[in-house]
Structure formats: structure tokens, C-alpha cells
Specification:
The chain has 5 helices and no strands. The chain has 114 residues and is mostly helical. It has a domain of 55 residues.
Length: 114
């Protein structure tokens, strides 16, 4: 597969390309103000866009959970990642399923008064 379609291969072709570049006119003062107003406020958090592939069932579960939480799917996924990272940062030590089940069997059931 050749991905260099239209790219210059010789110095002459590169010079031709550079000589034929056309630039847009600079924005008007009004348009420049609009562009600057569209930027995030100075000092705001920089967000990085990531592409994520999810199985259909998982995506549907995320959509349901996000709707129940009243947030977008993106916000819900971001919060889920933050929770996991926080748990890991607190030196949370994973245990085996067998150890978890053994610990659960030692718990006494809660007696509910009707």
C-alpha cells in the first residue's frame, strides 16, 4: 500500500508544491474575536480525545447507567476510570475470589425487624 499519493518525490516537485501553496486571508477582527471566544477559558483543564471500542452489550449497559446517573456516556466512562484509578492509587490490594468468598462466609446475616 502506497500512502504518499500527491507527495513530492523530487526537489523540483517539492519546490513546485511550495510555490503553489495558497493561504486563506487572515480573519477579520470580528471573526478573530469569535474564534478566541470559542476557546476554553485560560487555565481550564485540557481534555484529550480517545477512541474506544466497546462490545455492543457493554455500550448499551454504559448508556443505561449513564442515563440513570443523569450524565452523558462520556462523563460516565470518565467517572468510572477516575474511580478505578483512585482505588489503585490508594494501594487497594486485589484478593482472590476464594479469599473474598471465605471472608463473606464469616459475616453474620443482618436480622431485619418487620
Amino acid at each position: 500500500m502506497n500512502n504518499d499519493k500527491g507527495l513530492p518525490r523530487t526537489p523540483h516537485e517539492a519546490a513546485d508544491l511550495m510555490n503553489n501553496l495558497a493561504f486563506d486571508a487572515p480573519p477579520t477582527a470580528e471573526r478573530e474575536d469569535e474564534l478566541l471566544d470559542a476557546l476554553p477559558p485560560q487555565g481550564s483543564e485540557i481534555m484529550v480525545v480517545r477512541s474506544l471500542r466497546l462490545p455492543t452489550e457493554l455500550d448499551e449497559s454504559v448508556a443505561v447507567a449513564a442515563k440513570a446517573a443523569g450524565v452523558t456516556k462520556t462523563a460516565w466512562i470518565r467517572q468510572a476510570i477516575e474511580i478505578v484509578l483512585t482505588m489503585q492509587a490508594d494501594d487497594d490490594q486485589p484478593i482472590s475470589r476464594a479469599d473474598a468468598l471465605r471472608a463473606l462466609t464469616l459475616l453474620r446475616p443482618v436480622r431485619r425487624v418487620a
